[in-house]
Amino acid sequence: MDWARQFGMLAxxxxxxVRLDLCCLQIGRIVEPGLDPLAALAKLDELAGDVGExxxxxxxxxxxxxxxxxxxxxxxxxxxxxxxxxxCCLHSALVSGRGMPITLAVVMIEVARRVGLELQGVGTPFxxxxxxxxxxxGADRFLDPFHGGREIDRTALVERLRATNRGLGPNPDSxxxxxxxxxxxxxxxxxxxxxxxxxxxxHAAIRTTDYLLALSPWSLEERRDRGMLCYQTGQYIEAxxxxxxxxxxAGKTPDLARVADFIERIRTRIGEPG
Length: 274
Hints:
alpha+beta, 2 domains
């Protein structure tokens, strides 16, 4: 089964049509190929059932979701084994109750969706957050899934972003805009890819890059990375194909000479003339 291709099909279409839970469970197959998604979907339904009938006030719904997830079911950010691949996986978070900020954000977003509350992802540089629109004030309210869903004041967030940027880069307010589901999926995969490379699990990193290319087939950087990873695992034909594509289409990039050197190394190994 070509899981990356199936993932790409699930992640296509309009923002409303993309099922974040199904896409994240498909990502989980990188870490656990035999994963059965039905148990995870049933757990999300169970958590939504525990929220119960609260009414349609967003603040009341958000407070009840926090109670169910972080007090009753004790979900928490994993500060001890943060860089475990399982922390990127929705199904693992639902079993262990631990995960990265974005993984716990997906749990919150999907439980909220099931009870009628629209939570949106917010891709701040330090921790992934979620937000919802307050019905009374019309203002956004920000929640931190990694720290028990606690609310963070917008002014405090902006000040922290200004301190992080040190006056450089984009306006801090731009980091508080909603991200799309595809952007969330890309961030999950980028996290998992980085963890796999850090652990020198290059085969897992290749599988993750295949998913990233299914999400963004035009990404020359991912094509280059896949070529380099295939080189590390001795898959020289695949590496040559990926690196030649990058070299041909990337333009004048700083790493072009390095990529050309790897292409020549591979040709020497497989006996292909330059």
